[in-house]
Design goal:
isomerase, Alpha-Beta Plaits, RNA binding
């Protein structure tokens, strides 16, 4: 076991922030990261070679046997605008009764008899944002599973069970993967492209021609400060993000769709670099995103009524066609 004194600065933080690290002082990932930056001379200070001759026999209190984790990956769709990706608990109070993570994990944990599950996904959507199209890639790490052997038909059956259990979430391409494949989930995190569809509203009239001109803008660089809505949990920073392309069009029957007079409703189809704050690009976030959609449309104020993720351009895990065996 890695000695605490060897990297006191790292493990002092983990000891102090027990809640953040779930009380785990040493984890495989933490130890591997510490060893990667350890010089040979520093290592020998704590573990000399050859080691000293022991003066007492080895003793132990107990033996615990655990099985290696089982990893199951897939893609999920979220059809609800009132469902969070992970459990939403603030100050010990649960805000939403369920989550994407819990809906997916419940069946997997029951089938594998795992002690717990760690859920990871390629990014996350807001509670009020749907994830459509091919869905968002995810992986579940089943901790200490008591059942680890599943044939393809059994995994497909689990996929069906998850889809039957909820109308708010659906999964596809469910499959067992190896640990070393997990790098695909986070690989090129800022290089991936995501496509969104937004329903927008403007308090000023906008001509179709102005919206059509948006399609001429390619690879637009944005300067985005951390949005006000997430400042309570993310550090203040300014990030550059790229809007690769976009197109917009007016909705028909405007007066029937919106009771307010002198407003414009339109849809925005946008492809952007992963990590782009789309809501803030639309309404500007009090000038914290430059340029904003309103600026591009001539200095009008635009707000967003609804947002959907249409596609996440990450071809992992591979698609599965059960119909072809």
């Amino acid at each position: 076991m890695l000695r605490l004194e060897m990297h006191a600065d790292v493990f002092k933080i983990r000891r102090a922030q027990k809640r953040k690290y779930h009380g785990n002082l040493y984890t495989r990932k933490a130890v591997e990261l510490a060893l990667q930056t350890t010089e040979a001379a520093h290592f020998k200070q704590f573990f000399p070679s050859p080691p000293p001759v022991p003066t007492a026999p080895v003793t132990f209190d107990s033996i615990t046997c655990t099985h290696n984790s089982l990893f199951i990956a897939g893609r999920y769709n979220k059809f609800s605008r009132t469902l969070s990706q992970t459990p939403w608990v603030i100050d010990g109070e649960r805000r939403i009764k369920s989550s994407v993570q819990e809906i997916i994990s419940e069946n997997l944990q029951a089938a594998s008899k795992a002690e717990g599950i760690k859920f990871s996904a390629s990014g996350r959507e807001d509670v009020d944002v749907r994830t459509l199209g091919r869905g968002r890639p995810f992986v579940c790490e089943l901790l200490n599973p008591h059942r680890v052997k599943f044939i393809a038909e059994q995994v497909h059956s689990l996929e069906c069970d998850i889809n039957k259990s909820s109308k708010e979430v659906a999964v596809r391409d469910l499959q067992i993967v190896q640990r070393d494949e997990l790098v695909n989930l986070k690989a090129g995190e800022e290089k991936k492209t995501k496509r969104y569809m937004a329903l927008c509203i403007c308090s000023d009239p906008i001509e179709s021609r102005s919206l059509a001109e948006l399609s001429n803008i390619k690879d637009l660089t944005l300067s985005q400060k951390t949005p006000i809505r997430v400042l309570h949990r993310r550090p203040l920073a300014t990030r550059s993000r790229i809007v690769h392309s976009m197109k917009a069009w007016l909705l028909e029957n405007q007066t029937k769709l919106c009771k307010k007079e002198n407003v414009t409703l339109f849809k925005l189809d946008i492809k952007a670099q992963a990590g782009t704050y789309i809501k803030e690009f639309v309404h500007g976030d009090f000038g914290r995103t430059q340029p904003s959609l309103g600026q591009l449309l001539g200095g009008v104020y635009v707000d967003i009524l609804a947002l959907d993720v249409q596609d996440i351009e990450l071809d992992w895990p591979p698609a599965i066609d059960y119909a072809q065996g």
